[in-house]
Specification:
about 20% strand, membrane, alpha+beta, transmembrane helix, four-stranded antiparallel beta sheet, Clarin, signal
Length: about 150
């Protein structure tokens, strides 16, 4: 394979791996994992709402891994309510779900960054000399300590 083509392929793969790491990091922090609609049934039943009037009684909920927002619509306008999972919903939703999602997203980010590093090493360096010399000793020692 020509040198330019090798550099192009490895650089493209490294950039995609870096984009994967950034996407996973952004997904952990976003508040838009789940969206839903909430019907205020008592208010809709009181006024016998149907058709276009029913839209005044439909609220929204959206939440992510750490926090969320609920907007209740009971005919008098929206009332937003912000909540966070760890102090507010820890009694209802088990913490093991959140911890496992955080752990696996962290592992995904680390592996994607390590993969991007190896792709860039293959593109711009000589991996055989790097992995066999003193830098290789430091690299393999670091990898074995992490595992």
């Amino acid at each position: 394979m020509p040198a330019q083509q090798k550099k192009l392929i490895f650089c493209t793969a490294g950039l995609l791996s870096l984009a994967c790491a950034l996407g996973a990091a952004a997904a952990v922090g976003t508040q838009l994992w789940v969206r839903g609609s909430i019907l205020c049934s008592t208010g809709a039943l009181l006024v016998n709402a149907s058709g276009p009037e029913l839209h005044k009684f439909i609220g929204h909920i959206q939440y992510g891994l750490f926090s969320g927002q609920r907007v209740r619509q009971c005919g008098l306008g929206g009332r937003p309510f912000h909540f966070s999972f760890f102090p507010d919903l820890l009694r209802i939703i088990p913490a093991s779900i959140h911890v496992s999602v955080i752990l696996f997203c962290t592992v995904l980010i680390v592996f994607a960054l390590v993969g991007a590093g190896f792709f860039m090493l293959n593109a711009f360096g000589s991996p055989y000399e790097t992995l066999q010399g003193p830098m290789g000793l430091y690299l393999w020692s670091f990898i074995s300590c992490e595992c």
